[in-house]
Amino acid sequence: DQQVKQNSPSLSVQEGRISILNCDYTNSMFDYFLWYKKYPAEGPTFLISISSIKDKNEDGRFTVFLNKSAKHLSLHIVPSQPGDSAVYFCAASISNTGKLIFGQGTTLQVKP
Amino acid sequence: DAGVIQSPRHEVTEMGQEVTLRCKPISGHNSLFWYRQTMMRGLELLIYFNNNVPIDDSGMPEDRFSAKMPNASFSTLKIQPSEPRDSAVYFCASSPSGSTGRYFGPGTRLTVT
Q1: Interface contact flag, B42 A100, Cβ < 8 Å
Q2: Dihedral (C-alpha) B65, B70, B74, B80: value to the nearest 10 degrees?
Q3: What are the distances in angstroms from CA A57 to CA A66, A87, B22, B102?
Q4: Which residue in B64, B43, B54, B44 sits closest to B112, CA to CA?
C-alpha cells in the first residue's frame, strides 16, 4: 500500500522555465511533508519542507504547495537550471512516530 | 563534519551468499534508519533504531533480512541468503532524536546474480 505516490516517473523541462513536481498521499494523519533531492551515486539530501498548518513555503527558487483537501503537494522550481537535474522524492510523516514515508521519486531533467 | 558513512559502496554477489552492509551514523544522532531504493517502490523504510534499540522492523521484507546496532556508532544490515530480487540501493540515514529530517549516506548498490 503506497501511502505517498509520485505518479510521474520523469519530467523534462527547458532551462529557465518552471518545473512542477507532484505528489499525492492517502493518509490524512500526515502532518509534515518534505522534498528530498538525489544526485546519482549520492544519498538524498533535504530540500524543503512544509507543515500541514501551512499551504505554502518558499525558499529561493523552490516553493512547496500543500492542498490538504486534495491530499496533494507540489514542488515548483523557478527558474529551472541544469544543476536541478536529479531525482526528487516527496516524503510525509506523522509527528512523534519517527516514520518518514517516501514516494517513488521523479527524475527531473533540465535541458540547457 | 563527516556525514553518514556506508560500506561497501558496491557489492556484487551470487545468489545464496550472505551479504553484510555497514553504516556509521553521524556522531550524536540517536536515530538510525535503513532504506531500500527500487524503481517500483522508491525509498522503502526497512527498519529504524532509536538509541540502538530497534523500534520498527515492519518494513523488513522477510526473515532473510536482519539488522543490528551494537553501539551508537555502528549498524549492520545482513541478507542471508541473498536473492536476485534483493538487488537495489540500500541507504542508511541518521537523525537527532525527534527530528523528522534524515541525513542519508551515499548508499550501497547491491547486485545479486
Answers
A1: no
A2: -20
A3: 9, 20, 36, 19
A4: B64
Task: State the nearest Cα–Cα gap between A96 and chain B, in angstroms.
Answer: 7
Contact call for B48 and A49, based on CB within 8 A: no
Residues of A in contact with B101 (CB under 8 A): 34, 46, 49
Q: Which residues of A touch B56 (CB under 8 A)?
A: 98-99
Residues of chain B in contact with residue A91, where contact means CB-CB under 8 angstroms, are: 43
Please tell me which residue of chain A has the smallest CA distance to B36.
Answer: A102
pLDDT at B97 (0 to 100): 81
Using alpha carbons only, give the angle A23, A43, B32 rounded to the nearest 5 degrees. Answer: 95
Between CA A43 and CA B95, with CA B107 as vertex, the angle to 5 degrees is 60
pLDDT at residue B61, rounded to an integer: 87
Q: How confident is the model at residue B1 (pLDDT cuts 50, 70, 90)?
A: low
**Which residue is closest to B9 within chain A, CA to CA?**
A41
Supply the pLDDT for residue B72: 95
What is residue A109's predicted lDDT score, i.e. its pLDDT? 98
Residue B86 has pLDDT above 90, yes or no: yes
Q: Mean pLDDT throughout A62-69?
A: 97
Q: Tens digits of per-residue pLDDT, A95-104?
A: 877 788 999 9
Q: Do A101 and B56 touch (CB under 8 A)?
A: no
